[in-house]
Write a structure and sequence with these properties.
Length: 392
């Protein structure tokens, strides 16, 4: 079982690797292909939209084929997309590759989150998403190295090699998943399936949707536009911008790792609150006209504070809504998280296209304020319903 957990962690590294590549590579891509800088939002929108669709419809495939095979096949899809990006001759070739990447990522995320929730302790959820942070930290580092030598295409090729190795590991480990399931099978409680309309009528569900959308909007607004902001507004070189993005994702990984370590000492709600407290000065640092290098500190702190909010909200789902409907709410939460991923980059693109990239930190502040308000309303609602669990 311990080795299988390692395999799952490695698989989540594979989920993270493609997510930060486009942001760190885009300053070089749009220059070489002679396309508008705002066009990155088309790619991210397609990836995120396909991820939402894959997440929503993955349950039937997972039940028929199994988590192990779906994860291996989906990781292979992301590897194919990485290789395709590395040889893409034009922006238009990247569009179908974005579809493949998004469909693969959604199935991995849904399958592994559900598997860990059912078979492992709560602390492992934070560690799982910490390893996602390892993946998204690794790829901008690889890209920064490639930009100094082989160019952005080389960065995508390096990422392809990583994904290929993870795919091979997952294929080889398929029998291990079967053995683990047979030796550690637990009876699952039959849940009540709620429709999207039924959940939309519940104020507390709507509030958690906003929280999940906002925390992921902050994460991906930084992941996609952080490097471009530093290059365009702060005068960083291309490789420096990519390296700064690595520091951002390292902060996110550290935040999730520390949250997992502290899970037995500080309850989940307090860890979420601590993340929000760290986020506030981080965004202020981005807003103020401080020396350029300080903006990197701000990005690091945004990753550190925001990183643990998503996995901890996922972990709290059965406590907040009850085990009977947790699967339905879980699926909707992940879908709205990816909607935040899908909407944030084009929103930054639209606003910066009108007012300039200098307004980027203001958008982060607005999203943060919306998240904190929704979080406060959600907690108040849970307290009224006597479902605010401080022991989780």
């Amino acid at each position: 079982m311990a080795f299988l957990l390692v395999v799952i962690y490695v698989a989540f590294i594979g989920l993270g690797v493609p997510d930060s590549l486009i942001g760190s590579a885009w300053p070089a891509i749009h220059t070489e292909l002679n396309i508008a800088v705002e066009a990155v939002s088309v790619i991210t929108f397609i990836i995120s939209g396909c991820t939402v669709l894959s997440s929503m419809f993955s349950a039937r495939i997972l039940n028929k084929i199994g988590t192990a095979r779906v994860t291996a096949f989906s990781t292979a899809m992301t590897a194919v997309a990485m290789f395709g990006f590395s040889v893409a001759p034009s922006f238009w070739v990247m569009i179908p590759l974005a579809v493949i990447l998004g469909l693969g990522a959604g199935a991995i995320d849904s399958g592994l989150n559900n598997y860990v929730a059912l078979n492992f302790k709560a602390s492992h959820m934070n560690f799982l998403h910490c390893f996602y942070g390892v993946g998204v930290s690794l790829s901008p580092y690889l890209m920064s190295q490639a930009l100094s030598n082989a160019g952005w295409r080389g960065g995508y090729r390096y990422a392809f090699y990583v994904q290929l190795a993870i795919t091979i590991l997952l294929v080889v480990s398929v029998p291990l998943w079967k053995k683990s399931s047979s030796n550690n099978a637990e009876e699952e409680e039959k849940g009540v399936t709620l429709t999207l309309l039924q959940m939309a009528k519940m104020p507390e569900v709507r509030q958690v949707w906003v929280i999940m959308l906002a925390t992921n909007a902050i994460e991906y607004a930084c992941g996609v536009w952080g490097s471009t902001y530093l290059v365009t507004e702060k005068g960083f070189q291309l490789e420096q911008g990519a390296l700064a993005l690595t520091i951002y994702y390292v902060g996110m990984s550290i935040g999730r790792f520390l949250s997992g370590l502290l899970s037995g000492k500080i309850n989940t709600w307090r860890r979420i609150g601590l993340g929000c407290i760290i986020l506030a000065p981080a965004i202020v640092i981005m807003l103020l006209p401080l020396p350029s290098v300080v903006a990197v500190v701000g990005l690091f702190l945004i990753g550190l504070g925001n990183g643990a909010i998503y996995p901890n909200m996922i972990h709290l789902t059965p406590h907040n809504f009850g085990k009977e409907v947790s699967q339905s709410v879980m699926g909707s939460q992940i879908a709205f998280a990816y909607i935040g991923v899908m909407l944030a980059p084009p929103m930054v693109s639209l606003v910066s296209g009108v007012f300039g990239i200098k307004v980027y930190p203001i958008l982060l502040a607005v999203i943060y304020a919306i998240m904190v308000i929704a979080l406060k309303l959600f907690i108040n609602k849970l307290k009224k319903q006597d479902r605010y669990n401080t022991d989780a």
